[in-house]
Prior knowledge:
Elements: E1 3-5, E2 7-9, E3 12-14, E4 19-23, E5 30-35, H1 39-57, H2 61-81
Parallel strand pairs: 1-5
Antiparallel strand pairs: 2-3, 4-5
Amino acid sequence: MAQEYPFYLAGQWTRSEDILPVTNPWDDALVGSTWLAGDADVESAIAAAVSAAATMRGLPAYERGAILARTSAILTDLRHFG
């Protein structure tokens, strides 16, 4: 069975009505599926970002930098894992 990859939106993994199959370009075999964000999902993402911006603005620069460094390390690990 192919792996499913929901998208992350406003602190939770989300699926929509629009499924996007992901295929291997070599043999067209289904390797996974994800979901396409719709207009309402985009609006939710914008609202979450605006809300988070106020919180982030209140943090000292060194704390914001530490958050970005941890995020970068996690994404780098995930890139090597997958």
